[in-house]
Amino acid sequence: MRHYRVGLAIVAALVLIALTAPLLTALEGQDATGFHPELVNSALGGLPNGALGGISADHWLGVEPGTGRDIFARIVYGAQVSLGVAIGATVVQVLIGTTVGLAAGMGGRLADGLLTRGIDLMMALPELIFAIALLVIVPAGFPRPLLLAGVIGVFGWGGTARLVRAQTLSLRTRDYVAAARLAGAGRVRVARREILPGVVAPVLTYAALLLPGNIVSEAGLSFLGIGVRPPTPSWGQMLSNASVWFRSDPMYVIIPAAAIFLAVLAFTLLGDGVRKAANPRTTGAAS
Amino acid sequence: MRTSHKVLTALVPLAALLAACGHNTQDAQGAKNSTAAFDPATCQGGTLRVLNQGDLTHYDPARLYTSGGGKIPTLLFRTLTTRNRVPGPDSTKVVPDLATDVGTPSDDAKTWTYHLKDGLKFEDGTPITSADIKYGIERSFAPELPGGAPYLRDWLKDAQNYGGPYKDGELSSIETPDDKTIIFKLRKPEGEFPYLATATQFAPVPKAKDTGVDYEKHPISSGPYKVESFDQSKHLVLVRNDNWSRQIDDQRLACPDRIEVTAGLDPAVVNQRLATGAGDDANAATTDVNLGPAELARLGSDPQLAAHVAHTHFGDTTYLAFNPKVKPFDDIKVREAISYAVNRQTVINAVGGSQLADPATTFLPDQAVFGYQPYDHFPAGPTGDPAKAKELLAQAGYPNGLTITLTHSTAQSGHGPGVATAIQDALKQAGITVNLEPLDPDSFDAKVNTPATEPGLSIDGWGADWPSGNPFLAPIFDGRQIIKSGGNFNLAQYDNPEVNDEIDAINKLTDPAAAAKRWGALDEKIGKEALTVPLYHSKDLLLFGKNVKNAWVSDWNGLYDLSVMSVK
Amino acid sequence: MTRYLLRRIVETLAVLLLLSACVYAVFYVLPGDPARLICGKICLPDQLTAIHQKLGLDQPLWEQYLHFLQGLVAGRDYSSGPSVNHCPAPCLGYSFQTDQPVTGLLLDRLPVSLSLTLGAAVLWLVIGVGTGLVSGLRPGSLADRALTAVALAGTATPVFVLGLVLLLVFCVYLAWLPFPGYVPLTEDPVAWAQNLLLPWLTLALTTAVVYSRLTRTTLLEILAEDHIRTLRAYGVPERRIIGRHALRGTLTPIITLFGLHVGTVLGSTVLTESLFGLPGLGKLLIDAVNTIDVPVVVGATLLSGFAIVVGNTLADLLYHFADPRVHLT
Amino acid sequence: MTLSVKGLTVRYPGVTAVDDLSFDLPDGGSLAVVGESGSGKSTTAAALLGLHRGTRAQVTGTVELDGVDLTTLPDERLRAVRGRRIAMVFQDPLSALDPFFTVGDQIASVYRLHTRAARRASRQKAVEVLNRVGIPDAARRVRAHPHEFSGGMRQRALIAMALALEPSVLVADEPTSALDVTVQAQILTLLADLRAQSGMALLFVTHDLAVAAQIADDVLVMRHGRAVERGPVRRVLTAPAEPYTRELVDAVPRLHTPRAAPEPAAPRNAAVTVHGVSHHYRRGAHALKGISLEVREGETLGIVGESGSGKSTLARIMAGLLPPTHGRVAFDGGPRMRQMVFQDPASSFNPRRQIGASVAEPLLTARSGPAGDAVSDAVGDALERVGLGPEYTARYPHELSGGQRQRAAIARALIARPKLMICDEAVSALDVTTQAGILRLLTDVQRELGLAMVFVSHDLAVVRQVSDRVAVMKDGELVELADAETLFEAPQHPYTRLLLSTAPALDGDRPDSH
What we know:
Structural class of chain D: alpha/beta
Largest sheet of chain D: 6 strands, mixed
Oligomer: heterotetramer
Order of helices and strands of chain C: HHHHEEEEHHHHHHHHH
């Protein structure tokens, strides 16, 4: 449980950082998009001047090679994208997954058969590949974070739907559902009063475990160069840009890599904590 | 040709890191000077390897879009004229190849006559005739063989609706009175016809051997090498063509006995292999992999490696293009303000720093052959002059600044998001808020190059098909080259009769030096209208293997020349 | 068994058909006209028309799709003018960007992706199951806690982060390994393995975490089952209980998961291949997406869908053979 | 003295499961350990073999087998004793065998382990013991996996495994509780026969006093981990010395004791009529075949049958929860007039709703039902009627015991003022003392409200306690339907007779014990 608290603390800190990004950068006295040609060596391909990628009192985490933009500012604004997209994608996954799963579980044999096949097909799709393809199809003008959340969500609800369907089917056979039907409750009332409350807890638990995966997805798509568009900063995009600077400016790689690692770790710990709290029976001996 | 840097790979791979890998195995014996100890008489032998990134696609002379004969194509296809293979500024000159001279103009440069050299043969020993050249050109009009430069259709008489030999028979504007003579009839004066005659479309194709679309699988060579095997898109192996000799070709040295091209390699891998130079890689070169910004730091600390770097300078300009038909860019004061506001330093840093780009204040590249005349009508220094820009904006009626949209391609290289964000940041200093409109490369081309949909401000690039002022300036500023249906490069939609007349007048000149002077003057003149904001001229750095000799860089195409390099 | 396989094959075909229709419909709305790209920078209307004809882009969507299906079964010719490009069955389309049949392109790249995945699979099985057993046999021990912590860190490290770290450590600082390229197995097996070691590790370590955790939980669950208690009650030594009985049960879900995982070859290697510049299917796909080479994108997507469906069937079969209680229906 | 237990105490963190227990089991003797759930009887059985080693349980006291204390024996030596000298048979025969190995393999490998016999000989032995426990075609069945065996056969196989090593003590932990009565009878007979043949001592753990009476010479009654009473079976059951034992014995329903209340007078109208109802599930298996019967107002119809007989399916069809595939059910009443009480107290209430809300549900869904205070009053009244105070309104299901939940379930059924109440194994999951209370409540409310009631159970004795008429079902068919007296005292159908003869009962030698 104490791991869970560490996770919660980091998540809270990240959310706070994302929310107060303008404040934090103002505190530093920089912004995320300002170029600083004077801080990089143009003759060396734009390598930041000074040690550790140009870390200084003015630029707490150094500056980007080439542009000289402030990395601290880009990291804190990147948190907005990373967390925003991941949370948005999770919401999409949960909404679609719950709706489809509930419909399949509560529906008749035909509806269930069709929807289950649909879920299976969804799970059989190579998600990343479809996400890549879809990101290319949509016109570049479309708000990118929204699109990313949508795409990650639209290709990732299969698990939630399966979970909800299974849970619904299991709850449906419970005697209390039969009792509710005998008490005169209709299908909708049964779904709302008897089934849904039983679905919410496992879905929320599952959602907590989906979140870190969605952070990775966003970072991966950005890493592949099809995430948010410049000048909007995102961790995956920073890492992608940084990957060529590995040798000459390792700090440029380490900072976004650490940010991604920390965020995923924190959300994983939190998700694990939520899962264990919801289902204490499966608690591993080592935790 | 626009320099759209057709490298669309979204992910820039780990060039720097990979290049760093295995660094310790670098030969510490010291690099040999690339030009030292080179003797054309004894250079023959060995195998030259070419490690390339882009796939080998169409080895059909009708479909290749080349300049000066091309990099690899020139090993197979001889053309009427070709680029001059000497180091230095003279490399931008046109010299005869199959022909005895660079062409004899008559009728105000509307007729061009060529005579073939003696003893020319195809790889199978059959003699090359003027009819073979005519047929080669005709093929390039066939719709199923697209890809070449558009000039022939534009320049040749009666060629505008010609559909190629398969459908429409012969083209009447090319005459072959005898086997050695070929005459071109143009519909307007074109003093630069000899430059065009370097294109592979001017290579002979024996009609008897033409297999249409399949011809590229084994094109019939007229050059020093012939195709031994062509494993589609990945491996091309060239061996000596016994029917070619230095007696009938004074341009190519053809030192290696064999040239093996491997394509589809990762750029980082190519650079690493060239830098390490282990085994066969010591005899390797590349024609399409440049060093990236992150690799530059390494060169400074590794003089041995630096000796194997070719510094190239291909004439191109990346610029901001205004569409004065869109407000507020109709106001020259606004255009001037933006000209003052740009920060070329940040732009250059965004594309790799001072080793990979020079600031541009002229539209013409900074090479004499284009007619370059230095000017800076809106002197803003390397980092811009936002105060002056604000002042101009106030005069234009925008004392509180201005919000504009900048359209750019999402391609990571060249004039992509990096430059756009640099511009955005610079203009912010001058009180101009720039909204970015990123478009994927195809949508960008479709939108920007169609006058009806062209945005007010976009980032574009331009490079010339041959080193001369005409192909650099005419498509951009000739009012008669505004193409309404798409594929328009006159982004200012600039139609000035005076300028049009001057272009016509220069085209009539057949003396390149005289023409260059007037192209330079024209550029300087148009520059005053602030129709574009030149940003930078790019430079490239390429590695070659440590056994490779005679790898001097041609100013024509900004590359070392495979046809004169040696591995012995 | 035969009936099961037949039914599975029919189902697989149905899923693929549906998938191909979806993919086709989706990519039809791609921006940019592939014909324009092929045509070159300056393209005249009749050239464009000719290419349209050749690609069959002038036909309605459903007709194009039917032709696609026909090509898949019987091969297909792309022709215009005097020449014909033949695309033999199974024809997944013809890439006019590279002027090759898509099937050939995919087959070209397949050895790279297979080398990557299979090598990594061996590693992740060995590492994952090994560490899982160590953890599961001594829950709460120092080793278990350490492995749990490592696994957690592993879960939080995406492939592209791990790959970069491994490169930096092994390639730059230690300089133990060559920078990864790709050398075909048939050319030089040693160089093949050396070059792929880092990509293998990258892919394997992130996946091994899943196996490690699964092995641990399954082992713990099985050790708590009644039949283990029976064995204990009959004096069967602990070593034998674990080695013979618990392990058998633990491996069953592992094998199933393995079948599913191997099916996701393509999807899982995109990032690794991009990161290391390996010319595999993932790299092909990313490049194709960037050049809007639709036939290749469609082909690669279908291939990966096919792999996943086959992997699912494989998982079912393996499950059947691993667990006598499971009947294939 | 084969087995001697002294001061056995098993503590789990926070709980003492077995508290200072001592007893002896002589050579060839048989002892039944009886108790309700939580009495510590199964923990005791496991502790005899030292199965708590390596868990968090703390075991003190001694377990001496032929003078050797098993609790302090080193692991290595204990292993040699386990199976060889003292073997165990478990409750759930499905999970007690490794699903991945054939039954023969498992028996043979355990045999080999202890005897170092050759592979072939071990195999032979497996066939032999399977034969001995009555597995038909043992030579072939030896190659079958556990899942290919029926429940009874699995239990036989497990007994065969024990038998192979000829231990001197066999510990059987509820070995028949998961089985149908007819199968249970076979296993009990088998155990008795084997004991007679081999002379091994048997320690039989069960919750069922009747089974204990049948299998054992002596009985040890446990409660809360402590021994309550120990003595010869007949004496303890007929003349219990301890009040708890008496309570326990009295709570056990008797097979041949008729229903306490008098028969309702005069024939009445049918409340529900089942006309030729058949039902089959998706895979085609027939759950019900052409059932016709009726339940009259004010009477209780008992339905008995073994697992798979279709009795629960019929109950659900009568309640209107499941549409029959063929035939029809005529019910003279509106919605909410048919109510059910279910078997599993754990799943009969929504864990996320308060008891009051669940009980009120029939009122809340009725369009013209009461509202506001009227509802809470009604809920309070209903709870009070079933013996729960109004304070239970605000409680959640997990805060209630199994018996309390069944009471609340009855309250929920009653609040709708039903004409028909169906109880599907409503007391099967309860301890026998709790069960007796619920049965009393059910008969009371049925009489009081003049309900038609259907009482479904596998337990004939329970059915006897509440039913006016009884239907016997087998494989989806109605085998016999008669009034309770006739059916229990003069059964017509052979299957009914079989059931009655195999059902363990405390009636002693029937029917003249009372």
